[in-house]
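Ticket #4471: structure export looks truncated?
Reporter: QA, pipeline team
Priority: medium

Steps to reproduce: submit the single chain below to the structure queue and open the exported record.
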Amino acid sequence: MRKLLFALTFFSFFVLPVSAQSDPHPDWRARVSAALPLLGHRNWILVVDSAYPLQVSPGIETIDTGAPQTEVLHYVLNAVNRSIHVRPEVFLDAELPYVTDQDAPGASAYRQDLSGILRGLPVQSQLHEKLLATVNTAGQSFHILILKTTQTIPYTSVFLRLNCQYWSDAAESRLRARMAAPAH
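Actual output as written to the record:
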């Protein structure tokens, strides 16, 4: 009986905790695929470096991908581009062009890779702190999906604010102008 009790105790202390641990890198691709149909304009998807802070606004969901940033960004942009309802508005940290290879080895190569990945997309730059504040505020009302990567170069986070795919900014401007015009 003692041997059985010892075996059960051993099993419960050493084996169960290992099997009960969650996967440190959940299937982020499946999460993106599941979330994308629910996301719309004013939602955000962020593909961030490994030191990006864990934000606590109620609408913010953070996933540790355990994957390289360029891989995650390619996947997300392809998924968004295949969607029928949203398009990305890209924001980058204004600090990124000033990060040197001397201070952050690989920064120049990353910028070159990023330029190729974002080719054809309009890109806006804002200070990192302003982007953090914008995302924090948006997370009060809208869902924000943050995908942390293994990137270790600072100011490399890519912020994608989703906009309506089937309604352009120009169409919105024309609509607003018609609404502001006096009725005949």
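Status: closed, not a bug. The export was complete when the record was re-opened. Leaving a note from the reviewer for reference: The mean pLDDT is 89.
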